[in-house]
Amino acid sequence: MERTLVRDASEKVGECISLRGFVQTVRNQKAVQFIILRDHTGLIQVVAERSEANSNLNGLIAGLTRESAIQVTGLVVSNPNVKLGQLEVQLQTLSVDSMADATLPIDLFGRTETDVDKRLDWRFLDLRQPENQLIFRIQTTVEMAMREFWISKGFVEIHTPKIMGSPSEGGAELFTLEYFGQTASLAQSPQFYKQMAMAAGMDRVFEIGPAFRADPSFTPRHSTEFTSVDMEMAWIESHHDIMEFEEAWLCYVLQTVKEKHGKEIAETFGVEVVVPSLPFPKVTMDEAQKILKDKGYLPPAETKKGDIDPQGERLLCEYAKEQYGHEFMFITDYPIEVRPFYHMRKENNPKETKSFDLLWKWMEITTGAQREHRYDVLVKQATEKGVSLESIQFYLDFFKYGCPSHGGFGFGLARLLAVMLNQKSIREVVFLHRGPNRLIP
Length: 441
What we know:
By secondary structure, this protein is an alpha+beta fold. The chain folds into two domains: 6-98, CATH 2.40.50.140; 126-428, Bira Bifunctional Protein, Domain 2 (BirA Bifunctional Protein, domain 2), CATH 3.30.930. Helix content is 29%, strand content 27%. It is built from eleven helices and 18 strands. Strand 8 and strand 9 (182-186) form a beta hairpin. The longest helix is centred in the middle third of the chain and has 31 residues, at 239-269. The mean pLDDT is 95.
């Protein structure tokens, strides 16, 4: 018999169906037994009367443990007294695919608080929770919407190498590995190869793929392996073209999520998906620093001059909400000291770059810029930054034979999900977190 999903059982009243899923609860009563069965689409009540004829079934049910994987067949009947959809399945057959150990290592359903590290140790069980299942359905919708918008605007998808012979974002935070007698590194971003696509005349490209940073950070916004969302487009006039594109792209993504999951997100996470108005507020870095100063905020001593620390980002997001009634805000025109050598500098102020970060609610989710596409200028800027020209010569070669003006951004998928769903840490919204002390599972 073909499997029926729980969500479709209401369409099968009066029919015999087959269900497969996990045992959420077993209730053994004198006259009747109940199984609450769960699959990835919902919960359903399965009922069996205690009788001589059902003695084998009764014994099997009595021995079931929570989270065992089972298959049942039975008749779907309406029952207005049942809270789970006013229907139940009258059990006919039961088979156990896999019996779970009687004692679960974590509480799957929040009756007791479980430390996040313990939940990550048993992530495969943690992911059985319906709210976690929803996160990854939302993630699927987010990526689908991103791709739909890009493709509608003439973009093509590329897949860039993740093993590199030179760093993609400078020499820091690199994972190195032995590579047939050479030293290679894991890609920190696809930046160099996105720009290669521009030099190749591909005009508009995007990639959703892994990136790696050897960052010894334990903050709720960092991980050593993450999913990076990147785009690059040619023939632009300035970084404002990139910001304008990102605004429209994000509005499309959020509108799609709101239409498909808005009600579930509100019920499960208590947050409304807001589709932002256009254009997004924009302030320069100089203006942002003045806003923070006026608020009486002094950043930590370790914050680089011309940059913004996480608490500063939170305060600027509050300012955007107060001043503009907006959840998003661009910070533009970062100084050259905190931007990589390939960011284009402003003609009227070469100490500033044509760059931006995008803040949302409380966190930076995007870094972008117009890139420098002139070979001689790139060489000069790399030298000023102390970058070995020999180590990036292959990259510099991209710009020797004509390259259009171009720019793009890198975007943190986990950060978007964490902010959208009001989660405290990106660890809650990734399939498996990787950090300085976590390589397993």
